[in-house]
């Protein structure tokens, strides 16, 4: 048994070859939900869906977002209608009182669907409509995710980190904004002053997640702040990691990040944007997998390999390094 913590693109890229090393039927993936948004009334779960689409063999692995070959007719028509009506595009937050009304799981991250600021494919949208409708029928996010995983024939078990709302809010000189506005719409342009995981003080990991954290845990090369931060902000989640073997793959080579806004976000929350900073952020990690060119001296066991992943063979190589690191701390 092994459990991967997933967010962004780092861990899904690792999963691309992990099935050659770890039995998928004995593998659980716990996905970040702090990035989720409600867009036009539909709950979009980007990190859950990347794993869902990857496991179903339909993920667009050029972008690591959405369904390969998907069309965008509805998205384009929404923008056409907004232009024709003279409606402003860009992120359109619902009014403050609407942010905490309706279904709890979407609190603090509700956006209008007018000229939607995230490109949602037509087939992708069908997943969000189905997810939201099942939630409205009374099922939990965990239950809904299992239904969708069955529809996509996943071999692994895929779990959301919680059935409670946690929203990743980036604080900037321009004011607070949801992570999706910061990253998708603004392309990480505003300076990061802090990052808040709104709702985490009352959120809890589900019993299924806590059971999964009893197994050895792999933290893939995901963003330590916005991919792992929402999980670690739940006390019970962080506590569980202390008592199980954990191996983390650094998303940095010393101070160079592979992709995404990890460096800016780590600096914004007061951590050194480097492998050393990742180690400081992960005191629960028992061992690390670092790139062969990363000479960072850590106080825990290290396995080195080429950690750049551009395909299944690369991912398998990193997964085998993870396996060796787990054996060292088992």
Automatic annotation (TrEMBL):
Pathway: Cofactor biosynthesis; coenzyme F420 biosynthesis. Homodimer. Its cofactor is Mg(2+). Gene3D superfamilies: CofD-like domains (3.40.50.10680). InterPro entries: CofD, CofD-like_dom_sf, FbiA/CofD. 7,8-didemethyl-8-hydroxy-5-deazariboflavin binds at residue 49. One of its GO terms (biological process) is F420-0 metabolic process. Catalyzes the transfer of the 2-phospholactate moiety from (2S)-lactyl-2-diphospho-5'-guanosine to 7,8-didemethyl-8-hydroxy-5-deazariboflavin (FO) with the formation of oxidized coenzyme F420-0 and GMP. It catalyses: (2S)-lactyl-2-diphospho-5'-guanosine + 7,8-didemethyl-8-hydroxy-5-deazariboflavin = oxidized coenzyme F420-0 + GMP + H(+). Belongs to the CofD family. Coiled coil: none annotated. Its EC number is 2.7.8.28. Transmembrane segments: none annotated. It comes from Halobellus rarus. This is 2-phospho-L-lactate transferase.
């Amino acid at each position: 048994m092994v459990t991967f913590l997933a967010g962004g693109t780092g861990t899904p890229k690792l999963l691309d070859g992990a099935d050659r090393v770890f039995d998928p039927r004995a593998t659980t993936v716990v996905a970040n939900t702090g990035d989720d948004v409600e867009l036009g009334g539909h709950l979009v779960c980007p990190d859950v869906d990347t794993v869902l689409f990857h496991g179903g063999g339909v993920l667009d692995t050029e972008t690591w977002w959405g369904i390969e070959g998907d069309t965008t007719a509805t998205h384009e028509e929404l923008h056409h209608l907004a232009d024709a009506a003279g409606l402003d595009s860009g992120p359109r937050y619902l009014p403050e009182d609407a942010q905490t009304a309706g279904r709890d799981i979407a609190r603090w991250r509700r956006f209008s669907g007018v000229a939607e600021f995230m490109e949602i494919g037509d087939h992708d949208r069908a997943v969000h409509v189905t997810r939201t409708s099942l939630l409205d029928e009374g099922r939990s996010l965990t239950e809904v995710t299992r239904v969708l995983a069955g529809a996509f024939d996943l071999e692994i078990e895929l779990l959301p980190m919680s059935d409670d709302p946690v929203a990743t809010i980036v604080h900037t000189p321009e004011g607070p904004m949801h992570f999706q506005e910061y990253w998708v719409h603004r392309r990480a342009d505003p300076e990061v002053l802090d990052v808040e995981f709104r709702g985490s003080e009352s959120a809890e990991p589900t019993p299924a997640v806590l059971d999964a954290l009893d197994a050895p845990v792999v933290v893939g090369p995901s963003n330590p702040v916005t991919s792992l931060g929402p999980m670690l902000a739940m006390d019970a989640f962080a506590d569980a990691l202390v008592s199980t073997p954990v191996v983390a793959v650094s998303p940095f080579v010393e101070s160079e990040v592979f992709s995404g806004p990890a460096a800016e976000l780590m600096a914004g929350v007061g951590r050194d944007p480097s492998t050393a900073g990742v180690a400081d952020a992960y005191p629960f990690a028992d061992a690390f997998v670092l790139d062969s060119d990363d000479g960072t001296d850590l106080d825990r066991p290290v396995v080195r390999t080429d950690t750049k992943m551009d395909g299944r063979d690369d991912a398998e190589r990193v997964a085998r390094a993870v396996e060796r690191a787990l054996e060292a701390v088992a």
